[in-house]
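Private note to self, pasted from the team thread so I don't lose it. Backbone tokens:
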């Protein structure tokens, strides 16, 4: 039997905890159906990091099966994400875990797989276990890593990243992909694929770029940077380069890049590109302009090049995006 420990702390996302359990429970049922075996292959315990009763961000009360200090070993350790409020609150949560870091590291070192999702990724990274590892996290946390946590090979374009026994994933619902991988690792492809069909888990497109939204980036108080952002929004129909943006902010190109990276986790030109993609999405949904016309309106002389950029970010073509009802896009 595979023993799974699910780390929980105050502020945990209730859906992440219950969703992980739902996937594990379904895997046991499908395994019994396929093999006839009466013994469940997967077992799990809720591990309270610092207390027996944990309150989720939605006010739901979870009773831990065991305290962290009482735990000895798990085959798999999962740390589900907590509700994100702002960067300062997340950093406070990360630092509040410091007294428990050594025990968490012990359990992780003994485990065969270690999984973390959403805001739990920086919490795990802050223990030092992910130093030098290829990881991902929620796309809007890239700036947080730039400011607070160094030494990880972060790539937030992916929604699932595997490096040795460490698996990290993006925003909250991608815990489904994490647990799907766990099931596939221990129970095989057939059962994992059945779970994906039952629960509509996308196991082919492990990308977060389709969900990027500049409106959802963390708030900041840098008034000069806000002016540059506004200027970019108002001038997407013009050629924009790094030198022009640096001139607008009256700083060097290096300083401008550093400030964008620190605040957003994006270079200035990456920010401009995402802004153009978002404008294109709006035009595709609200006008009858052709893809070629939209590319020209966004200062792309070569519409084929813009089409490639669009597909890279959204995962579908401009034509497919226009035909797809807006309700299928989470940020619209």
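Design output:
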């Amino acid at each position: 039997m595979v023993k799974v420990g699910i780390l929980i702390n105050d502020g945990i996302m209730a859906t992440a905890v219950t969703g992980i359990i739902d996937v594990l429970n379904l895997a046991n049922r499908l395994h019994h159906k396929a093999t006839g075996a009466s013994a469940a292959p997967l077992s799990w315990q809720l591990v309270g990091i610092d207390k027996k009763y944990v309150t989720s961000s939605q006010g739901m009360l979870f009773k831990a099966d065991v305290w962290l200090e009482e735990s000895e070993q798990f085959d798999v350790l999962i740390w589900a994400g907590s509700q994100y409020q702002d960067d300062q609150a997340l950093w406070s949560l990360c630092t509040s875990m410091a007294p428990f870091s050594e025990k968490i590291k012990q359990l992780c070192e003994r485990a065969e797989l270690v999984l973390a999702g959403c805001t739990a990724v920086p919490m795990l990274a802050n223990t030092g276990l992910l130093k030098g590892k290829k990881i991902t996290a929620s796309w809007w946390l890239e700036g947080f890593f730039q400011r607070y946590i160094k030494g990880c090979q972060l790539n937030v374009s992916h929604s699932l990243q595997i490096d040795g026994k460490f698996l990290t994933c993006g925003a909250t619902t991608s815990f489904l992909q994490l647990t799907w991988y766990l099931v596939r690792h221990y129970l095989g492809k057939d059962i994992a694929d059945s779970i994906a069909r039952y629960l509509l888990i996308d196991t082919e497109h492990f990308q977060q770029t389709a969900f990027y939204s500049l409106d959802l980036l963390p708030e900041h108080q840098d008034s000069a940077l806000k002016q540059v952002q506004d200027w970019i929004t108002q001038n997407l129909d013009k050629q924009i380069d790094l030198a022009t943006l640096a001139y607008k902010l009256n700083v060097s190109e290096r300083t401008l890049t550093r400030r964008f990276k620190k605040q957003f986790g994006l270079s200035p030109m990456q920010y401009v590109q995402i802004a153009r993609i978002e404008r294109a999405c709006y035009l595709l949904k609200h006008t009858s302009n052709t893809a070629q016309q939209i590319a020209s309106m966004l200062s792309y002389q070569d519409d084929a090049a813009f089409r490639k950029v669009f597909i890279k970010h959204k995962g579908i073509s401009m034509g497919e995006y226009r035909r797809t009802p807006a309700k299928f896009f989470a940020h619209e």
